[in-house]
């Protein structure tokens, strides 16, 4: 018996880009539409961008034989905090006027489709769990290393929401009580040590203290040109200060991972975002730090891997979220996790 | 229609005491048997103590009209790490020769009852969830403040086990990277700052540095007489150093609680163990610290409360574990959690 073909629209509503995919029920991307997020033009503009993107993939899909009737719904990964039960984005920091917006309802009315809303980090975690680095791993944690540090936690194949739908704020875990000031106002948060911004800030602080580095020549003493990527690239060239900054970042991130593992005991920690593209050069010291400072067998055994879905993770995760909401995707659909070799980090 | 009466034996196999209760299906304690744990006399001695205790409550129960036929099974909370699926205690640090013991099977054969084994902190969390401070709260975390720091996590009315059955090692969360040495070998763990032992160690370190305190007179300069309880009692008398130590302990514990809340987002954090008996004197600064350093609404709203079941928590939790294993106790059986006022900490 052949199962019915159906399709889902998945949207990643990011601060920089809106990524919209039309996906088969198996996660095959039929067509894709992306645009720069024009957040500064306000809420209505962003909403109309999402609607246009959805209409584009629907039109393109129709040309490829995907009928409107076979579209199950639309999922959106958006900036948190979000209550995925009621489809409201409470606040979108980069979009003026975005307060308590019933996005799911508005889009649903316009597109005449069921629309489901999820926090972007949760959506990305779901995407990696379904078809990415965590395929078949039902207990995993995703960390997105960007301007800030996001987190999504999957337990027994389900997103961990917590009592108030705000679980997974991993970036604001304190790893150094009394340490560096974080954007949240607290001191010593993981984000204050491991975000792209903090990598740059820690580098600048060392330069200010007179530490020599190739960086100053590379940016021709225009310090505002120093980026996280540049620090990593210069570390790869062997620059002493940049190497130290990368090693410190690995140590801090390793500390956060140890905490996650001691508390939640997942099988896998997936690192996404720009910094996670640095490869073994960055992953090796993280793994080594976790191994050396681990408390128990579980910490020693956890896999630490880069995300696999790249810029599609959020949109694919939004598709997975719709399938889950419709009861079409559960733990059992995924490959069993016994492949994980606990002896290997 | 009157539902059938049945009963469960619950055992807390602690390092100091063995507490054994015969309980009704509603958690009413019919009879109770306790004895000092003779761990130093080896594994077989401890097992025979548990058997004797169980036989005592069965005999006493029979006198009170509880027939052997109405006993559903026995639950045991024991020292971790434990795999509750296979009923093995891998290692009991205070009992010589205790390696990979199939305790559930051994006891089951002897008592001719189904026996279920659970980690002691998980059992205590389950007890507090069922009938204690967390009654009706389906998302909670229990921290036991003793010689070490134990943890049990309940999510949606179920224990969080994690992939390798070792979730909830909250005491080994790092709150101060590069900080005090912990018994686990790592630096800066919550346990290294907030266990009873660490309270004493931090006090001794300050005295060694020349800090004046009433303590030295109270113990007549015999520093080995300083206990955690004495530090707390002397703080209540207004001693400057002891007050500082208690305040620092509240700050460190508050940091750990902030991390738990940011990652897991429970409705309630329950503090058990000796230190938690200090009352508002200790709880007020913890709540204040969490409130002041909180990241989000969720952290601000979490209830921080003392455990309610005292020395029965583990045994009652072991009873709850048996009822859960038999499918007789689930989330819906508990009172709804909407009573929690999120504005109040």
Write the layout of secondary structure elements.
2 copies of one chain form a homodimer.
Chain A: E1 7-13, E2 17-24, E3 29-36, H1 43-63, E4 71-78, E5 82-83, E6 88-91, E7 99-101, H2 103-111, E8 115-119, H3 120-131, E9 140-145, E10 149-155, E11 158-159, H4 190-194, H5 196-208, H6 215-218, H7 228-236, H8 240-264, E12 268-272, H9 280-293, H10 297-301, E13 303-306, H11 313-325
Parallel strand pairs in A: 1-4, 4-8, 9-12, 12-13
Antiparallel strand pairs in A: 1-2, 2-3, 5-6, 6-7, 9-10, 10-11
Helix pairs in contact in A: 1-2, 3-11, 5-8, 7-8, 8-9
Q: Could you explain how this protein is built, in words?
A:
The structure is a homodimer of 345-residue chains. By secondary structure, chain A is an alpha/beta fold. The first copy, chain A, folds into two domains: 7-127 and 312-334, Nucleotidyltransferase, domain 5; 138-307, 2-Layer Sandwich (Nucleotidyltransferase, domain 5), CATH 3.30.420.40. Chain A contains eleven helices and 13 strands. A five-stranded mixed sheet of chain A has the order 3-2-1-4-8, with helices on both faces. In chain A, strand 1 and strand 2 (17-24) form a beta hairpin. In chain A, helix 1 packs across helix 2 (103-111), helix 3 (120-131) crosses helix 11 (313-325) and helix 8 crosses helix 9. Chain A is globular, with a radius of gyration of 21 Å. Mean pLDDT of chain A is 91; it is low at 335-345.
